[in-house]
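haha ok so turns out i had the wrong file open the whole time. this is the CORRECT one, sorry everyone. sequence first:
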Amino acid sequence: MISVVIPCYNAAKTLAETVESALTQRVDKEIIVVDDGSTDGSAAVIAAFGQKVRAISTPNRGVSAARQTGVAAARGDHVQYLDSDDLLAEGALAARLEALARSGGDVAHQDWQRLEPDGAGGFRLGQIRRADLTRIEADAEVAAATAEFWAPPAGLLYSRAMVERIGPWHPNLPVIQDARYLFEAARHGAKFVHAPGVGAYYRISAGSLSQRNRAAFIRDCAVNAAEIEALWRADGAMPPTRRAAVAAMWRMVANAALYDGLNDFEAARIAYRRAGGERRALYDVGLALRRLLGPRAAATAMRAAQRGAAFVRPRQRAVAASDAHAA
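then structure:
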């Protein structure tokens, strides 16, 4: 049996469609909806499903705690996490179960497709994303740490044994806890198997935490990079691929913090260099501007310069092409 765990907080607009996408899966299943202290009409939406779902209501403690509450109540041999605004594609769970049974795997993943705002209050199908299977096979920890391997929870089915090996969801990464959970699966030796087809639809919303609180997102990325680096260093000498992955994680944090005017930049720049990252003129300029103007004014100046360069480069290429043609 599959336990579908749906954490919910103020998701009355999308929750019914999400639950229906789980109910229509033709597998032995239970649907557990954890209402994480919603203040909108979510409770009424859940109640309307009656005995079709197992409803749990808790004070608001965040999505990681809600997922953990759902897992504690789950009775299935497999766990499918499903966020309250995402959807399972028809036949997704059957395809994942078959892939796990055939391979003896621990985590099944499928391609997933973006649901993007259509400008009229609805959503349209966007780009289909597929994990790079060669990256996973080469080093799943590196692939997950650098987000070369990432899928929304809706795109991943975990064996119950692997869920128990991973342990609780990370309590201090409110924005990117799903990426860290996938890394922890790799860290605990999960065998990943790809199931065919698009299995999940991932809703892109301006109201998501990563979109509305950019600073929190970057701080999560910094905490995650520091913790993963510490884990790998504790393993002993890091191979070049993992050193490069650590540098890439810190480079992402440094870049984002620089252009967003966040205080995380200096520490991320130092960590990037410590991990073996090459010296970057961008960071030297950014550091000088921050000391002269302050982080936010420096960020404004850096973004303006970036926009100018983006405008000038195509014009330079066009002029060069014209000159070459004339010659």
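The CA atoms of residues 262 and 295 lie 7 Å apart.
again sry for the mixup
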